[in-house]
Design brief:
This protein is mainly beta and about 250 residues long. It contains two helices and 19 strands. A hairpin with a 2-residue loop joins β13 (about 145) and β14. The protein is globular and about 60 Å long.
């Protein structure tokens, strides 16, 4: 995944390339994907309905600028355009129709650009509070296919963690004075040095200011890369005010 943060529009512009292997014994003619940022799009989503049932009405009554969504999708398989469609009931699920069946043991390369308008983080796990970013359940993600079939579920506060495992390489571009915490191993020596220096500064700090205002964002951008194999998901968090602790 290549992703760039726009901290003025509170949005992500990204593209992803997935190598999807059919580990089942059946040929697959379709693939289901989660588009979970769409859970924040309107009052009709499963997330909004669940929150209301739990007595939480903030998303139901949210302003348009507080809501979120994912769009600008263009799914292709092995570089070929395909037909795909949103689920008729849940706009945070979509179905990809394969041009030819994916045989057992075979792999396909799935690509798409995508754009995420980040919701307010007060609703659930994905979102921002001003320029503090909590980026979870944020990219088009294959649903699980097993002996019971497809598990293409909408995003819910309760019970969202049933997804495939995979290996990730994620390149995050954002203003240079952000500190990022993310899944996996950081690959950039300069960023590691920055974290080391921040950790030294934090270790020498006896008291912290109560000023929680956000510093101005750098005009210079940086791109940092994280890698991790055989994990359930990839999440990242970014803030210009973070202090850094180091330990073993």
């Amino acid at each position: 995944i290549d992703v760039k943060l726009n901290d003025k529009r509170h949005s992500l512009s990204a593209s992803e390339t997935i190598v999807y292997k059919n580990n089942s014994q059946q040929a697959l003619t379709e693939l289901y994907f989660h588009l979970w940022p769409n859970a924040y799009k309107n009052r009709e989503t499963a997330l909004c309905k669940q929150l209301v049932k739990n007595g939480e009405t903030e998303l139901f009554f949210a302003r348009e600028d507080e809501r979120g969504f994912i769009d600008s999708l263009d799914f292709r398989i092995n570089q070929q355009p395909i037909q795909w469609m949103l689920d008729s009931q849940h706009i945070d699920i979509c179905k990809l129709i394969l041009n030819e069946p994916l045989q057992p043991g075979a792999s396909a390369i799935i690509t798409t650009p995508f754009y995420v308008k980040l919701p307010s983080a007060k609703f659930s796990r994905l979102g921002h509070l001003d320029q503090a970013y909590m980026i979870t359940q944020w990219f088009p993600k294959p649903a699980v296919y097993d002996h019971l079939g497809w598990h293409a579920m909408p995003y819910l506060n309760q019970g969202e963690f049933f997804s495939e495992f995979g290996s990730f390489e994620v390149n995050i571009t954002l203003p240079a004075n952000y500190i990022v915490a993310a899944t996996g191993d950081l690959q950039n020596s300069e960023e590691l040095q920055l974290l080391e220096q921040k950790a030294i500064e934090t270790s020498k700090t006896n008291s912290f200011t109560n000023d929680m205002s956000f510093p101005k964002s750098d005009n210079v951008f940086k791109t940092i890369t994280y890698k991790q194999n055989n994990v359930h998901d990839f999440a990242w968090f970014a803030d210009k005010r973070y202090h850094v602790l180091k330990g073993e």
